[in-house]
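Tokens for L1 transposable element RRM domain-containing protein. Go.
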Amino acid sequence: MRRSRRNNLRIIGIAEGVEGKTPTAFISNLLKDLFDLDGPPLIDRAHRLSQVTPKTGQAPRPFILRVHFFHVKEQILRLAREKGDLTYNDRAIHIFGDLTAGEAKRRAAFNDVRKILQNIAGARFGFRHPATFRITMPGGEERRFTDPEKAMDFVKSASSASPDSD
């Protein structure tokens, strides 16, 4: 991750326009309310990506925000993981670290593997920074991959070897 992105977060799923004219204050108060913080975190700036407002029915533009203190950014990510499903105005929202385009592309290469793992009961998976894919199979076997093809081979062989498979 580039140093300039180190304190950045990306928030996906917040409806267009709810931030009003002060997106930085809105996001700061949203984070305070979502995580029951003592006070609103210090946010240097917050804005939506892209200048083009999406049409009705399209997904809202994500927010990018810069948290003033790195440890506060890490605390927000930890709280988001611990809390699990986050909602605002009855809409699911997601909070991530801000990745470079290259990191996002490397992670997206694992999408097919992730779809298969979602259908395997007890399988757990996720990314270690920046694009190392971690898989824990129902039997407890854990592996890490940087190559999506090797991850797919592992998942196929592990799921066909499991006693629950048809």
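Helices lie at 23-35, 70-83, 101-108, 111-118, 148-161.
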